[in-house]
Every structure is written in structure tokens, then in C-alpha cells.
Amino acid sequence: MSTAHADHAHDHSHDHAHGHHDEGFIKKYLWSTDHKMIAMQYMFTGMVMALIGGFTVYVFRMQLAWPGMAVPGYGRVTASDYNALVTTHGSVMIFWVAMPVLIAALGNYLIPLMIGCDDMVFPRLNRLSYQLFLLSAIILIASFYVPGGAFGGAWTAYPPLSAKAEYSLTGLGSSMWLLAVALEFAAFLLGGINFVTTVMNSRAPGMKMFDVPIVVWMIIIASILFMASVGPLIAGAVMLLFDQQLGTGFFDPAKGGDPVLWQHLFWFFGHPEVYVVLLPAMGIVAEIITVFSRKKLFAYKTVLYTAIGTGVLSFFVWAHHQFVAGIDPRMANVFSVTTLLISIPVAEMVFVYIGTLYGGSIRLTTPMLWALSFIAEFLLGGVTGIFLGSSGSDIYFHDTYFVLAHFHYTFFPIAFIGSFAAITYWFPKMFGKMLNDTWGKVHFWGTIIPFNFIFIPLFFLGARGDHRRIYNYQHFPDLMKAGMQDMRILATISLLVLLAFQVVFLVNFFYSLFKGAKAPANPWEANTLEWQAPSPPPHGNFPQGLPTVYRGPYEYSHPDRKDDYWPQTEPAQQS
Amino acid sequence: MPTGRLAVWWLIASEIVIFGGVLGSYIMHRIGHPEWANQSVHTNTWAGAFNTLVLLTSSLSAVLAHNAASRGDGKRAAKLMWATIGGGAIFLVVKSFEWTNEIQHGYTISSSTFWSFYYTAAGLHGLHVIAGMIVMMFVASDAAKGKELQRVENAGLYWHFVDLVWIFLFPLLYIAK
Amino acid sequence: MSDSTHGTTPAAPASGHDAHGGGHHAHADKDYIKIWGILLGLLVVSLIGPIIGEKSGIFAITLVTAFGIAVVKAYLVIKNFMHIGVEKRYVAYLLITMLGLMILMVGGVGPDVLRHDGTRWTNVAAHKATEEGLKAGGGHGEHGEAKPDAPPAEHH
């Protein structure tokens, strides 16, 4: 059975020391319905797309630091290039990196294992979801190569720029972008239905809903949020596509339409979307901090209810993205209040996490470092959001780099710290090998420190007036005052350092994949069900038979036990 | 609840917000544009009413199919499902005549934003009718052999939802224009 | 009749006798046909209603017959054809929540899209489109449809 690298962009083989050699290569790697293989497909596709997203930011930050100079590996960056790069960066990172890795890959991998069943309830639908997703990624990449090039109207795609080819200059690229996004939505809608029905109907005997690990709950809540919020945007995307291609005027005031409608439709989805990606990341952190502080989650039901509360509230805040778009100012009052309110449940979750850590027996492994840094960095992101949620101060900050720094202080922890935490924690289970912990820590510090040096200068630049989506600040004498260009250069250099350290991760990942130390079933001495399966689990997950569950997932350091952990599958007697 | 049925309810839930987005946008625009009345007067109320009749009847045959399936009568269920599919086909045929007529009179998707909404909303609905018909064909052919009878109800649920969307499209586009 | 030829997948329940969960077995076919008859009757009323509404100029009649009846029809379909009464409660809550979200959306977006004037702005293009559209229609005017919500605000 060949385990060599497949030369397909979306798929890499991984080392199966044991397993199901009866299946041919195609059925096993490309046409699988096994949730673990599909999860790998999503994860590797997401990693490739992260390279693309990272490349785009490399190019445009080089342009910002040294405007007009040819960027090594790219060339000169024109204004249109710049627009296409920032649009691609935003779209790729949210739709093709954060969502596939945090939700599709982790949800697919973990859900059946953590609830103790052998696969999703609709395996073929699962395969179809991935295929739609892959198609969406291919269409997006292809949009770079069509006449006119890739869409450059920002990931928010406001009309009329996005609706009229004579403004966007990318007649075909705009529609391809839209189509790619729509397909990605369809893939995640189908996937979401799969996840929710699986968790509702396929739990192991004895596993009540409150015995389900928090990360699974979070993925489910995220899936429901997504399903409930994406509809209006799908409607809007169809309308925008028709405006682009059929000459309709849904968003054209001269034809009786309204561009503000698009903004509302977009953000009605766009705001819940950020919680769609936040909740799984917080779930990952919950799993890691309980295991590595050997303590139960401080308040399971509180975390659950505040997560649900956050999800519900997230539907009531969307117009804070539109405070200066000309919306009714009375609505702005309402949305300011709701936006400030939503910080409360999220803060509550952070308090619970701190309460979990307090008094725990902390093990500072690489996953634990990532989880702790998530809490710290996301907190900074969250508090800067207060300035933006208040409509008064947002009038100043809107569309400046202050906004950008705020959402990177939230999105980067979600997408990257969350992903690295998850990968370093579950790598032994997924691949049967241990990652090198020392190199993991090198990668950690080499990522976190530069990350802060990228975005803290951007807060200051934004407060000083740096507008977003400007490709050359030399055109604005007011923004070239003392020290400002130096801060832009500092941010870019820090980015280069951060990108360089990702090589450490990639080398560690692929080296350990083939040559890493063999991983036992439960290297972290954790309670949840996936650690009862072999590393990696075979087709069907639990060769010893599907487990029965006797308690919740966080019984660490229980006074009645000798061991400081108590797997969910062990019956109640003393061991 | 059986997983298949649960999945169809979740699907319906997500479709409510999709159609809600389209129809909500239409309603807001329509109220703000009284001059669209001059356009909307040209929709064919009787074609719309006939199509409503057709869809309601096809919903009847769908639920009768479910009743038959729940008694274990796969053959009857299949026949009734084919009647439902037939209803969908009639709906689409009537709509194609309707639209052809309107387009020939110059009421195209881009001639006025009213018509943009009209074709988009009804078109999206029509795509769902087609999807429902295809699903029903698969389920019906299994049911005729006595297989997978529980799917008859699930396919029917989806069909009823498609009917529900039309129940609201009909007044919006045809009678209270 | 054909129970013995059932091929059900392992995950599927035994089709048929407890398909309705709550033991509410067998509405006879004729019960469904009765509902269908009511639906048809409602359809007829909803056609006549707006005609009367237009002729009499009472817009409320159009609203109630067209949309009110749509709501009643929808309720009949959901209750009797989709059997929501015998489903688990959360299904109804799920559907109501989705509808609620749509009302929320229209509520939040309406103030911006419904109106063509704000306290300090006027949507000139929209006003022009409205005027020209009304002129072109010539005579069909307010064909039983709502007048714009707010009276035009003061222009600056």
C-alpha cells in the first residue's frame, strides 16, 4: 500500500502503520466516506489555502513598507494587484482556512470519536460536502487566471463596486469569487446538518447531552449559527450575481435598488460568522486547559449557556459594521448597546477558563501554551472592540487600521492559535506519532512575539489616521508624518519573522508524520472518548467495540481516584 | 427522531432563512416603490392561481403517499409520489408559458427591479421544485420495490415546504401586488 | 402487505406503524382530502378578496384576504400535512426561531431600505425612479398597494 505523497494538491498521504489495505488508493484517499479521511482532506486543503493567504499578506505588506519596489517572488504591486491581494487574503483566511480547519476538519475528526460512534450519520453527504468545498477553492484560485484577474472589491464586496464590471474591472473574476463563496456556503450548510444530526442521534450509550465535551457543543452551536445566518447572504449573493451578469438593479438606486441592502444582508450573516469561528476555538481551548491543569472545567453549564447566549446575541449586533454607512442613527443607538452587551457572555467564558486554571496542576506543554496565549491575545482583541462598538468613537475609527488591528487580534487567535492548539494537541491521535515538543515551543514563541509586533503598531497607525485599503501611503502627506512609515516597516518585518517561523511548524509536522516517536493511545492522560481509541483510529474507530459512557468529560483529580484522570468509559468502581 | 427526518427539518430550517432573505428584501423594496404597481399588474393572476391549485394538490398526493407508506403499501406510495412529481411538472410547464409570455412582452429580468425580484424569487422556488422532483423520483422507485419506505415522509416534508414558499409567493406576486 | 419485502438500512426505524411517534396513527385518506378541500376554498376566497378590496378601495380587505389567508393555509399545511403536532417540540421552536430571525432582519434593515429620506439625506435616485415609474404607468397608480410608510421628511 503506497504511502508516498499523493501529487494531488488537496491530499497528502499519512503514515498508516496498520489498517485497511483492501481499499485501493482512490477509494481510500480520494473517494473516502470515512470521517477521519474527510477531516484530513479539509485540514490539508485549509493548510494549503493558508499558504496562499500568507503569501498574499507577504506581498501586500512588502508593498506597504517599501512602496513601489518589486516584491521578491512577486514583482511590482499595482493598485489593482493590491486590491485583489487584500480581498483574497480576507476571503481565504475566513472561508478557506478558519472554517475548514476549525469546523470542518476538527468537527469531522472529533465528533464521532468524542461521542463514541463509528462515523457521521450521512457519510456520503460528508464526502459531497468536501467535494463542493474543494471545487469552491479551485474556482477561487482559478479567478486569478481569468481575463481581468481576481476580484478586488474586498471580502465584503459592497456594490456598486462589486456589481458593475466597469467599476471593479474584474467582470469574470467578481462572479467567480461570488460563486466560490456560494459553493463554500453550500458545503458548510450540508456539513452542518450532518454534524447536528450526528450529535443529536448517535451518542454512545450513557452519554447525555451534558456529558458531551465542550468542543463538540461549540461546533454544534457554531453550525446552527451558520445555518441560521447564511440564508439572507445566499439570497444577496444570488442578487449580486444577477446584478453582475444580467443587468438587474437589486443594489442599484437608479434602477430602484439599494446598495445598503447588500451591506445589511452581508453583515446579518457576517457578524454571527465571527462567532461561528470563535466558538470552536474556545471549545478547543476548554479541552486543552482542563487536560493540562488536571482540573475539571470550572462551570460546564455556564460555558454552555453563555456560548448559546453569545450565539443568540450575535444576531442583534450586525449593523455595528455600518455605523457610518448612512443607517438610521436610532438603529445605531440600538446596535451600540447590543454590541457592548455581547462582550459580557464572552468575558464570562474567559472567567470560567481562568477559574479552571486557578489552583490546577499546570503542565506547560505546547498545546497548553497555545491555549493560554489564546486567552490573553483574544482578550486584547475583545477590549479594543469596545471602542468600535460605541458608535460615537467608531465614527473616528471606522475604516482605519484600528479596526484591522482589532479584528486581527481576534481572528488570528481564532484561526491560527486555535488551529495550532488543536493540531499540536490532537496530532498524536490523528497520526499515531508525537510532534517534537521543543520545536513546538520554538514555533510558538516565534509566532506569538512577532504577531504582537505586527498589530500593536497598527493600532497606533489607525488612531493616527491610516485608512484601510490604501496601497501606498506616500500619496498622503498627513500619513507620512514622523515615525509612521517606520511603524509600517516594523509591522512588515515582524510579519516576515512570523512567516519564517512557520517553516519550523511545517518541518516539525511533516518530519514527525514520518519519523516521529510512536504515540500511545492516550499520551496526555485525558478523559474524553477519542483517547480510548487507538492512535490513529482504524476505520470504525473503536476496534474493541463502541464505548459506554459513565460520567462527564472533565473528571480530573477526582478525590476518589488514585489517578488524576478518569476516562469517561471506565465504570464507577475504583481502579 | 429518525435521523433522516431530523435532517430534513434542519434543511427546512436553513431554507426558511434563504427564502426569508429573498422575500424580506422584496417586501421592503416593494413597499418603498409604489410605482412597481405598474409593473406588477402584468403578472398573470390566473396562471398563479392555477399553479397554487396544482401545488396544493401535489401536497395532498405527497401526504397520501406518506399515509400509504406508513401502512407498508410501497406500491401505492410510489404511485402517489409520481402524481406529486407530475404536479411539479405541470407547475413548471405553466410557469414556462407564463414567463415566455412575459418576456415576449418585454418584461425581462432587467427591465425593472420588480421583475428582477419576480424572476429571482420564483426562479429560486422553481429550482427547489425541480430538486424536490428529482429526490422524489429516487424515493418513489425505491418505494415501489418496498424499500426505504421511511423516506417517503421525508421527501414529502421537503415538498410541503416548497409548497409553503409558494403559498407566500402567490399573494406577494400575484394577488396583493 | 409488503412488510416482508422491506429493506431498511440499519439506522432507519421500522417504517410504518410508529412513524408518527405519538401513537396518533392513521389519519384516514379522507381526512387529508378534507383539508385539501378547505385549502382550495381558501384559495378561492383569496382570489375574490383582493378584487373586492380594490373595488371598494379598502386596502385592509386585500391584506387580510391575501396574506391572512396565506398564513392560515400555511398553518393547515404545517399542522396537517407535515404533522408538526406529533413531532418533538423543538422542531416547532426551531421553525419559529428562523421566522423570528427573518422578522428581526426586516426590522433592522427596513428603516434603511423602506424609506427614501432620512433626517439629513434624500435618496434622489430612488425618488426620481418612483416619479418616472408612476408617470410611465399613467393611471394605474396605487393599485391596491401600500403608500410609502413615512411622509417625506424635511429636506435640508
Question: Could you explain the architecture of this structure?
Answer:
The complex is a heterotrimer of chains A (575), B (177) and C (156). Chain A is mainly α. Chain A contains 15 helices and no strands. Chain A has one domain: Cytochrome C Oxidase, Chain A (Up-down Bundle), CATH 1.20.210.10. In chain A, helix 7 packs antiparallel against helix 8 (259-293). The model of chain A is unreliable at 1-20 (pLDDT under 50). Chain B has 177 residues and is mainly α. Chain B has helices at 3-32, 37-40, 45-70, 74-104, 113-144, 150-175. Chain C has 4 helices and no strands. In chain C, helix 1 (29-56) packs antiparallel against helix 2. Residues 1-25 and 138-156 of chain C have low confidence and may be disordered. Chains B and C meet through helix 1, helix 2, helix 3 and helix 6 of B and helix 1, helix 2, helix 3 and helix 4 of C.
| H/E element sequence of chain C | HHHH
Could you give the count of β-strands of chain A? 0
- In DSSP terms, counting alpha (H) and pi (I) runs of 4 or more, how many helices of chain C? 4
What is the CATH architecture descriptor of chain A? Up-down Bundle
Greatest chain-chain contact: B-C, 70 and 81 residues
Mean pLDDT of chain C: 74
Beta percentage of chain C is: under 5%
Low-confidence stretches of chain C: 1-25, 138-156
Proportion of residues in helical segments of chain C: 55-70%
Tell me, briefly, the overall form of chain C: flat
Provide the structure class of chain A: mainly alpha
Number of structural units classed as domains of chain A: 1
Number of helices of chain A: 15
Q: Unreliable segments of chain A (pLDDT under 50, ≥5 consecutive)?
A: 1-20
Say which CATH homologous superfamily of chain A is assigned: Cytochrome c oxidase-like, subunit I domain
Distance between the termini of chain A: 41 Å
Topology of chain A as a string of helices (H) and strands (E)? HHHHHHHHHHHHHHH
Q: Radius of gyration of chain C over alpha carbons? A: 24 Å
Largest sheet features of chain A: none
